[in-house]
Specification:
By secondary structure, the protein is of the alpha/beta class. The protein folds into 2 domains: 260 residues, Spore Coat Polysaccharide Biosynthesis Protein SpsA, Chain A, CATH 3.90.550.10; 72 residues. It contains 10 helices and 10 strands. Strands 1, 2, 3, 4, 5, 6, 7, 8, 9 and 10 form a 10-stranded mixed beta sheet that branches. A hairpin with a 4-residue loop joins strand 9 and strand 10. Helix 9 packs antiparallel against helix 10. The radius of gyration is 25 Å and the shape is elongated. The two termini are 22 Å apart. 30% of the residues are buried.
């Protein structure tokens, strides 16, 4: 039985290249997997065929099984047995898509690292265009969606989300971009040093700076299975994006408080006016009193909720728990099933 591996705040050291082993540059693919048993083999075949167009490069495929409940792990182990360069990192449970990406980055050994989903909505052929942009001098290359084959509601919510995030965030986060991107070794190592728990990887990448380039592409429809980002998960990801890279919600509370004070002063003047000039009005000020009480109560609850979201983030960071736990690593190129080393 493999010894469970716990990743702590610190990152694992990137494996050193073996001198003289290969002069070709290595490109690593980080591939999060969650319940993709129906389509993972088709995806790997298509990705492998795409990479064969670049025999001048060496490729590594790091699949991170994020606690799948179907046969995804079994299929991935078979792929690892039959295909060189495949490494399978298996989580002890589901830790989430962003943590799966983080683990893949920790284990990737390439001179460049490409992050992409395995549902074929991100076409593997586009990853070769990312590589070309990297070879052209870009350190970070993100795939920007020119169009997407989704339901009208999905397209609307995605369009609105990316633009609201772009408007509120304190850093420049490109619109219509997901986690499908390439990073060189230097930026990957810098990203690995960011170990916060409420992770929004695309925002973290954008915050690094450096020379970034965009590759437009048309996003395909999902070939099998169901989306791993239903509405509740999308809302949580949106909250992580806003609270990780923006203090706008806190500033909005301040502005709302000022507006409330102004309305309260106007209410007081109104009540005094009724008392002085219309004393015969029955139960003067009752309507205004109810409106103000309900309004102030709503503002207070909203403010507490926003403040609570930030305090909750502080709480989880202070706990300093592992970002993820690896049950085993399957890498037949390095001797089969292994237990990875513990993060320092």
């Amino acid at each position: 039985m493999a010894t469970p591996v716990i990743r702590s705040n610190d990152t694992a050291e990137a494996p050193a290249p073996v001198p003289g082993a290969s002069q070709r540059r290595i490109v690593s693919y980080v591939l999060p997997v969650y319940n993709e048993a129906d389509g993972i083999e088709n995806f790997h075949d298509r990705l492998f065929q795409a990479t064969r167009k670049r025999p001048d490069l060496e490729f590594e495929f790091v699949y991170v099984n994020d606690g799948s409940r179907d046969r995804s792990l079994e299929i991935l182990e078979k792929i690892a047995e039959s295909c060189d360069g495949v490494r399978v990192v298996n989580f002890s449970r589901n830790f989430g898509h962003q943590m799966a990406i983080t683990a893949g980055l920790d284990y990737a050994r390439g001179d460049a690292v490409i992050v992409m989903d395995t549902d074929l909505q991100d076409p593997p052929e586009v990853s070769l265009e990312l590589i070309e942009a990297w070879e052209g001098g870009a350190q970070i290359v993100y795939a920007q969606r020119r169009s997407r084959k989704d339901t009208p509601m999905k397209r609307f919510t995605a369009h609105a989300y990316y633009r609201l995030l772009h408007r509120f965030a304190d850093i420049e986060i490109p619109v219509d971009t997901g986690d499908f991107r390439l990073m060189d070794r230097a930026t990957t190592d810098l990203l690995r040093s960011h170990r916060e728990r409420n992770r929004f990887v695309r925002g973290l990448v954008a915050s690094l700076g450096f020379k970034q380039a965009a590759v437009p592409f048309d996003r395909d429809e999902r070939t099998s299975g169901e989306t791993n980002y239903p509405l509740p998960k999308m809302l949580r990801l949106a909250a992580d994006g806003v609270t990780s890279f923006s203090t706008v919600p806190l500033k909005m509370i301040t502005r709302l408080g000022l507006l409330t004070v102004v309305l309260a002063v106007l209410g007081i003047l109104y009540a005094l006016g009724l008392r002085l000039f219309f004393p015969d009005v029955s139960v003067p000020g009752w309507t205004l009193l109810m409106i103000m009480v309900l309004f102030l109560g709503g503002v207070q609850m909203l403010s507490l909720g926003v403040i609570g979201s930030y305090v909750g983030r502080i709480y989880t960071e202070v706990q300093a728990r592992p970002l993820y736990i690896v049950e085993k690593v399957v890498d037949h190129g390095d001797g089969g099933q292994q237990a990875a080393r513990t993060g320092a």
